[in-house]
């Protein structure tokens, strides 16, 4: 007779969420986009270690579902980009939000966690908080850059805000809102000491050659504004740095086709840039200097400990409107500079990371700033040391993961409302 006993090393089975055990917790999570799915999966794994019989429901993707999550709707329903796209789908989004709120009000979960997607989630959270359900918003909107008073609206929606950046809780505290810094998950995924040799082996780049990684954006709309000046700048740098290897990762096939067309328009020197399918992290790790578009990629380059030059352009009309309405509350744009200012890090000689925005984002200026970094090894060393310090700060100086700290902050609320229910 064959034994059905599991080996001792096997993971405990995930309970069937359709049939929750009486007295167990029900935790609702609403995630939008791929990044939210990853955060949600890490959070579920950490919460399940605290509440082994919990039921997890709401909106999530494949990663969350692999952790035993019951998704009521497709996560791509919330994966929209840009004002015009949201307006186009607004009637459907409003119907979805109404149905979701009704279902959650009927279920009455122990807590509702909205992950990012603030334009959708904050409205859901506010309605549920008004109905006395416990709500948490995970990933603070950029209140330090856009309309700080938005923090008050977030406070009306969430009992607690979980922040990825250490300077954010102080902003919420000014408005009397409970906010906790839980660390940035990307800081857990990058080693404190980066592996340049291994990355160059993966990309088959010579170990002794100078390398420039160029990342002009992952969307076609970004490439239409940034692609040509970035590639022209790389060509200028290659002409001035003997033996330079230029690597350009493409996020997908459409981006690669656009980059191929742009490269055909710009005269190249002896070594044509190496165009990669994906491998953005490896390209950063392999590089001596990174030239990239402003956005989350700047945080990734910082965690890879690579000196960088940041450029960006938005549509001229959008830029003029933002300036006229005084919507932007900061004079710096890239996350490394924002974090350095908040942490009091100053290595002299201007910003930690050169920023060339809007009209300054030209091939000539991008090339000059990039060449300056290649020529100044002392500056590069100081930048790397500052990045190491910021990496530690994003991890909170602790050994546990961001998902574990987020789970602890949520569990504290659950257990306070339901003592003895854990």
TrEMBL record:
EC number: 2.4.1.182
Cellular component terms (Gene Ontology): membrane
Residue ranges, annotated region (Disordered): 1-21
SUPFAM superfamilies, per database record: UDP-Glycosyltransferase/glycogen phosphorylase
Pathway: Bacterial outer membrane biogenesis; LPS lipid A biosynthesis
Molecular-function annotations in GO: lipid-A-disaccharide synthase activity; phospholipid binding
Keywords: Glycosyltransferase, Lipid A biosynthesis, Lipid biosynthesis, Lipid metabolism, Transferase
Catalytic activity: a lipid X + a UDP-2-N,3-O-bis[(3R)-3-hydroxyacyl]-alpha-D-glucosamine = a lipid A disaccharide + UDP + H(+)
GO aspect biological process, one term: lipid A biosynthetic process
Stored Gene3D superfamilies: Glycogen Phosphorylase B
Record NCBIfam families: lpxB
Similarity remark: Belongs to the LpxB family.
Biological function: Condensation of UDP-2,3-diacylglucosamine and 2,3-diacylglucosamine-1-phosphate to form lipid A disaccharide, a precursor of lipid A, a phosphorylated glycolipid that anchors the lipopolysaccharide to the outer membrane of the cell.
Protein's recorded name: Lipid-A-disaccharide synthase
Gene that this sequence comes from: lpxB
């Amino acid at each position: 007779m064959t034994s059905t006993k599991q080996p001792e090393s096997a993971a405990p089975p995930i309970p069937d969420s359709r049939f929750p055990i009486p007295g167990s917790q029900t935790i609702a999570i609403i995630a939008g986009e791929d990044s939210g799915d990853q955060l949600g999966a890490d959070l579920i794994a950490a919460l399940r270690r605290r509440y082994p019989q919990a039921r997890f429901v709401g909106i999530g993707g494949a990663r969350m579902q692999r952790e035993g999550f019951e998704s009521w709707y497709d996560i791509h329903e919330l994966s929209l980009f840009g004002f015009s796209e949201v307006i186009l789908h607004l009637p459907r989004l409003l119907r979805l939000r109404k149905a979701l709120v009704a279902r959650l009000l009927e279920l009455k979960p122990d807590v509702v966690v909205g992950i990012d997607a603030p334009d959708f989630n904050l409205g859901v959270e506010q309605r549920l908080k008004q109905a006395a359900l416990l709500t948490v918003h995970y990933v603070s909107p950029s209140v330090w850059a856009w309309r700080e008073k938005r923090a008050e609206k977030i406070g009306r929606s969430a009992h607690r805000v979980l922040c990825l950046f250490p300077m954010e809780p102080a902003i919420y505290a000014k408005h009397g809102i409970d906010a906790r810094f839980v660390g940035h998950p990307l800081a857990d995924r990058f080693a404190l000491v980066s592996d340049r040799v291994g990355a160059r082996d993966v990309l088959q780049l010579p170990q002794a050659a100078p390398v420039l990684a160029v990342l002009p954006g992952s969307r076609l709309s970004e490439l239409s504004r940034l692609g040509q000046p970035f590639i022209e700048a790389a060509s200028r740098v290659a002409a001035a740095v003997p033996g330079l290897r230029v690597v350009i990762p493409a996020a997908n096939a459409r981006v690669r086709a656009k980059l191929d067309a742009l490269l055909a328009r710009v005269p190249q020197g002896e070594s044509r840039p190496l165009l990669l399918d994906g491998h953005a992290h490896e390209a950063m790790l392999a590089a001596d200097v990174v030239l990239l578009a402003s956005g989350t990629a700047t945080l990734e380059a910082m965690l890879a400990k690579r000196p960088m030059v940041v450029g960006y352009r938005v549509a001229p009309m959008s830029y003029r409107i933002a300036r006229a309405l005084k919507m932007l509350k900061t004079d710096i744009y890239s996350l490394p500079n924002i974090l350095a200012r908040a942490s009091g890090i100053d290595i002299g000689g201007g910003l930690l990371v050169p920023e060339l925005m809007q009209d300054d984002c030209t091939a000539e200026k991008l090339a000059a700033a990039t060449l300056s970094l290649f020529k100044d090894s002392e500056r590069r060393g100081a930048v790397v040391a500052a990045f190491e310090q910021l990496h530690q700060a994003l991890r909170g100086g602790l050994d546990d993961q961001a998902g574990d700290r987020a789970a602890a902050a949520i569990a504290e609320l659950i257990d306070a409302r339901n003592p003895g229910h854990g």
